[in-house]
Amino acid sequence: MSEGLVIGTAGHIDHGKTSLVSALTGMDTDRLAEEKRRGISIDLGFAHLTLAGGQRLSFIDVPGHERFIRNMLAGAAGIEAVLLVIAADESVKPQTREHFDICRLLDIRHGLIVLTKCDVATAAQLEKTTADARLLTQGSFLAGAPILPVSSVTGAGLTELKEHLALLAKRTTRRDALGLARLPIDRSFALKGFGTVVTGTLWSGSLRVGESIHIHPTNREARIRGLQRHGQAVESARAGDRTAVNLAGIEHAEIKRGFTLTSLDALETTDVMDVAVDWLNPDGRPAKATEFLLDMGTAEMPVTLKPLRAGEPFARLHLAERVLALPGDRFVLRRPSPALTVAGGTVIDPFPPRRLNRAKTFDRLAALASASAEQRVEILVEESPAGLSISQLVRLTGMQPEVIAQTPNLILVNGQHLVSKRWVEQQRSKLVEWLAAFHAKNPAAAGAPVSQARLGVPPALLGPVFDDFPDISLRGDLVALSSHRPQVPAVDAKVLAQIEFAFRQAAFQPPAPSEVLAAATTNPKAARGLLESLVKDGKLIRISGDLIFHADVLAHIRRSLAAQKGRRFSVADFKSWTNVSRKYAIPLLEYLDHQRVTKRDGDVRVVL
Predict the structure, then answer these.
(1) What DSSP string runs through 14-31?
(2) Which member of 61, 163, 239, 605 has the lowest number of beta carbons within 10 Å of its beta carbon?
(3) Residue 455: partners with Cβ closer than 8 Å, 6 or more residues away
(4) Beta bridge partners of 478
(5) Which helix (H) or strand (E) holds 557?
(6) What pLDDT does residue 175 have?
(7) pLDDT of 404
(8) pLDDT in the model for residue 3
(9) What's the whole-number mean pLDDT along residues 276-285?
(10) Given this model, what pLDDT does residue 344 score?
(11) Burial of 543 by CB count in 10 Å (0-12 exposed, 13-18 middle, 19+ buried)?
């Protein structure tokens, strides 16, 4: 059976939206006693239908009265296609226009035009309503949509409508099932024997029974006890499904319409965001801070809109409540009094920098607005002084961590942090400049301690700066320019040569450092510094304490062992090969174990 499609009704009050859904599905979506008493829809209604070809359709029936436009917006946020319902005997009315404008502002791209009550309309009325519908929708996503006359009373036209719904389900692009799970909640209630149940349309990602989830903006954690789709229990739900979620660990009174269910705890809510606004009447856009009602997802709240530049679409919204928003989310702005839809738009940055001036903010938003998901990550990483962690980027973009980690033109550090190639080059330039100055002041030093050469870079981010950088050389904890040659005074050079010669000549029977230093100079303290410089330079290697070997001696041992890979040998064997005493053999073998040249296995060792 094919995946479902969520379809919403839109249209003026008493134009037959609820009757149409009932005629199609056999379900009455008016569930409230007041709705049945007054004969109008007040809140959202839900129904579903499986067509002859196997396509599953979910219907969200929205109220048409202007007083309940908030409820209409909560339903419209979850739909993927719309049935624009117009009574054939009344034609286009004010809420027809407002509902249609809302669908355009929310970027709904698929739908059908349905002319209801054809059983009571005259031929002239039907012709006029058809012409009015074409005029209303010209230049829009419904410009070429079929106009289908039906009667919910006689059933006329319903078969043809179902055929067009099947075609609509085939060609409508589904939502992203690979992203983070996000479900704006439109209902929360308790069901006897089950507990807390929330419903909504899954905007992205997927949910599975047994998973832990988070409810925003309260960031309460709960567990999915069960899932239903079209009234049937299922193990999983995917993007685009109308879903009922049975939750454990939270009371239904703690959740309300406007909250959002998500799969990751990395997401955060916001109360300030930068947006691009699409005004229904461009001449009516405000030139200064103005109060509006914001409808996004299933939430509604007061906001203050501050334009960034006259005549341009970008603005900053200050929200009265915190909301979960991600780049690309659509919203609607309404004037509170008199109530009227005036604009819609797109979230560009839900966490904008607070201290940029307006000109820089405008340029930044222009770049983000036209950027792909990958380009957005690159922009955010490059504008941060030392890159951003994967968790920070999940919060800023809502993208999956594994997708973020594969962003081109960025370098992943330690599997959890991204820096730009440009940043790496900048740090390398600063490092080269700093080392040149260090060598000028310390010509005799083999290099500078790495700890001094960080230049404000956290140690965890040094890898990409130092790795595969031919202009520098790393030896132990010293870093130097590759071109640097220590300028040692003649007297010190002579002592260095004497110390190195003593250890090379001693081979496997290294002397005590104090003896070598006493023989090399009359100033043992100065000589000790020269000995340490040989160690730092890698010419001498300290095995432990005062046990020091010449690097050539250890290189000879490594070469000899490499020719016997896999061989097992004892300490006695090693002493025989090297002619060293046990005093030196044990520390040497422990050093070789640490260097992964050998591996201890009980009383013997294995050449790796």
Answers:
(1) TSSHHHHHHHHHS-----
(2) 163
(3) 427, 430, 431, 434
(4) 449, 475
(5) helix 551-562
(6) 67
(7) 93
(8) 53
(9) 90
(10) 92
(11) middle
φ, ψ at 567 (rounded to 5°): -75, 140
| Secondary structure, 3-state, 346-375 | EEEECCCCCCCCHHHHHHHHHHHHCCCHHH
* Cα of 408 vs its chain's centroid, Å: 15
Average of per-residue pLDDT across 271-288: 92
Six token digits for residue 166: 């099947």
CB proximity list for 178: less than 8 A, separation 6 or greater: 205, 400
Residue type (1 letter), 477: D
Best CA proximity match to 333, nearest among 361, 352, 305: 305
The CA-atom distances, in angstroms, between 196 and each of 253, 255, 298, 408 are: 9, 9, 18, 43
- Looking at residue 460, the DSSP 8-state letter turns out to be G
Query: Which pair of tokens denotes residue 335?
Result: 């004037």
Query: What are the tens digits of pLDDT across the range 308-345?
Result: 888 889 999 999 999 999 999 999 999 988 778 899 99
Other C-beta atoms lying within 10 Å of the C-beta of residue 515? 10
pLDDT at site 40: 33
How many other CB atoms sit within 10 Å of the CB of residue 121? 21
- Four-residue CA torsion sign, 83, 84, 89, 94: positive
- Nearest Cα to 438, choosing from 458, 460, 454, 422? 454
The whole-number average pLDDT for the span 410-437 is: 92
Q: Are 200 and 185 in contact (CB under 8 A)?
A: yes
Q: Do 246 and 194 touch, CB atoms closer than 8 A?
A: yes
What's the Cα-to-Cα distance from 240 to each of 203, 300, 308, 337, rounded to whole Å?
6, 22, 35, 34
Contact 204, 232 (CB under 8 A): no
Question: What pLDDT does 73 receive?
Answer: 58
Nearest alpha carbon to residue 21 among 231, 162, 173:
162
What span, in angstroms and rounded, lies between the C-alpha atoms of 417 and 392?
9
Q: Give residue for tokens 């991600």.
A: 326
- For residue 210, give the amino acid letter: G
Q: Which residue has the tokens 């890979």?
A: 565
Environment class of residue 507 by beta-carbon count within 10 Å: exposed (0-12), middle (13-18) or buried (19+)?
middle
- pTM, two decimals, is 0.75
3-state helix, strand, coil in the chain (%, to 5): 35, 30, 35
Has residue 504 got a pLDDT over 60?
A: yes
- Tokens (6 digits) for 556: 């000879």
Matching residue, tokens 């809109």: 305
205 in the Ramachandran plot: left (φ > 0), alpha (ψ -120 to 50) or beta?
left
**Burial degree of 441 (CB within 10 A; 0-12, 13-18, 19+):** exposed
Q: Report whether 560 contacts 552 (CB < 8 A).
A: no
Q: How confident is the model at residue 503 (pLDDT cuts 50, 70, 90)?
A: very high
Q: How many residues does the chain have?
A: 608
Nearest in space to 47 (alpha carbons), one of 56, 39, 55, 38: 56
For every residue of 248-264, which 3-state class applies, written as one string? ECCCHHHCCECEEEECC
Give mean pLDDT, residues 344-364.
91
First to last CA, the chain: 57
Distances (CA, A) of 259 to 2, 101, 188, 228, 252: 29, 25, 10, 19, 12
3-state secondary structure of 1: coil
Mean pLDDT, to the nearest integer, of 188-192?
87
State both tokens at 238: 């995917």
